[in-house]
Design brief:
Elements lengths: L5 E4 L22 E9 L5 E9 L3 H13 L6 E2 L9 H6 L2 E2 L23 E3 L7 E3 L2 E3 L22 H7 L4 E2 L11 E3 L4
Helix pairs in contact: 1-3
Amino acid sequence: MTRFAATVSGPLSPRDVPSSWHPGCPVPPADLRAIRLSYRGFDGAAHTGEIIVNASVVKQVIKVFSLLYRARFPIRQMEPVDVFHGSDPRSMAADNTTGFNCRRAVAPGSPQWSMHAYGLAIDVNTVQNPYLEGSRVRPSAGAAYLNRSDIRQGMAYPGGVLVLAFRSVGWGWGGQWTGSPDYQHFSVNGR
């Protein structure tokens, strides 16, 4: 079995986040770090991916993904959202696990920054863990996973390894939101 490994790069510059960062974002690229780390794929094999997060949470993120790796929790892929030209919908449709993206929250009320804009949130296995925005399922392929009692590989659920791994570092889970649960979403403050 290949051992878990993680390497951290940074501080980042604007050229490292060309599509996901722009002037006016709530954090500068210098506050971000890129982590290349091991994860288990749905094929059971070890893979290496990259996730960009705030420098303040690097140790927490490495701990979470080391726990998931040891538990053999499957992740479809892990690429910075810049691979998808900063498009959250494209990243979600690709079942991508990602962190930083300077964007507004998808929420009612006045516009506010998403926790992803601070590098303090991570979306995991977006198809297996869709976001429900009223009657809309994001991404649409996530409709196959709306029955949350039919637990399958890669899913987040109460008491499951994914939720517990993030809880071990004090992060909250969007799957517990009332009205519009966001099963893929984990963040420092639970929002």
